[in-house]
Sequence to fold (449 residues):
Amino acid sequence: MLSWSHMEWFFSFLNFDVETFLALTGSDPFSSMGYLFLHGGWILFVFVFLWIAVVYRQNYVSGKVIAKQEWILLRITVPKDSEQTARAAENMFISFAGAHSSPSWTETWVRGFKQAVISVEIASIEGRVGFYVRGERRFRDLMEGSIYAQYPHAEIQEVQDYTDGFPSHFPDEEWDCWGTEMIPTMPDPYILKTYHDFEDKVSGEFKDPIAYMLELMSRLGPGEHLWYQITLTQTDHKKMRQQAEKIIDTLKGVEKVHKKTLMDHAIDFPLKTAQEVVGTILGTPPAAPEHKKDDKALLPKLFALSPGEKDVLEGVEHKASQVGHECKIRFVYMAKKEVMKKSRAVNTFIGAMKQTNTFHMQALKPELKMVGMGSALWWFKERRNNHRKSHVVHAYKKRSDWMGMPRFFLCSEELATLWHLPILIQVKAPSLHKVEAKKAEAPDNLPFG
Fold:
């Protein structure tokens, strides 16, 4: 047990003499930094190194856990006269949230627990378009049950990964590719245009937002492949809802009082001390204490919002109320060098994705500074682009939820707009995988013998 002498010896390291520090700062800045380090500053470095070590170990253990997982890829085929809407896909994404777990501290930091990742994909293999869902084999019942509940006449088959056999490192003698990630331009709580916005309010006619993309995919020829992927990482929604509350309070004009935590006080103390030291040197008076604001000045400005601000407020509140996932959106166009037509495939895909964009709320854009292939690079352009090609293809094949740009939150309604099984009455692409007839049970009066 520590005695008082031991405590006194420990706190002697924290005995910070302001006059000595200021004298060293004026004569020898390097000595002043050494003095600061020896008299308490070393504690900050210890905490930083300990945190790095803990995070590194957690990532290492998580990597070993992921390597042992068994994955399954399911191809979904719907009848050619399917009349299901995007609402069915929304319900399917809500059901996928059943894969979420609430791990303990020990499971996360000692055993390397990671939330389940399910990816939904559309792939065109030389013009033959297919819809896929990929996840851990232990979630097969969850995935198939969620799909059959909304698409009872669909056929689900376990298939080999369509990305097998393609290069993961570039340059390659036979193949070339272009790929990127789609990233949001606004914080998570802002909402994209959803499938409800693609319905004519007068006639009630629905224009399928992915019909344009499927038409592009069906036009690809021999040697051309286009892959579209959305990874879904399960989440407890806490972070997104906290962000949404801040935006809602800002739009309403409500000033939320921040309760200082122990960490806030620990950070404020050295800052206030530094301000007092600087004020003493410069001879400036101390800052006056903040007066409590009158409650009448904090009245909400809800009734003064413009129509556009009201739309944003309603959109943020609507998104915050929905089930969703942390996502990554990837796109890869893989083709043999002699048939590659980058402008046609890439520009058409990005145009299809931008159908969900709005200027006053959320929008998606291709990331071209760190992940995507950039044409404006100055130094080592070809080498850097080849490195990015290898990186994005590798991340796509692994269905990684951490490689590349940070994940962002999409609610089930947004996801259903960006990915849903085709409404074949509207989508005329001839190369979609379709079931030629619906399956049904035999009638009860069927004769036997």
Observations:
- Strands lie at 71-79, 117-125, 128-136, 155-158, 175-184, 224-233, 324-336, 364-366, 408-411, 434-435.
- Residues 7-11 have pLDDT under 50 and may be disordered.
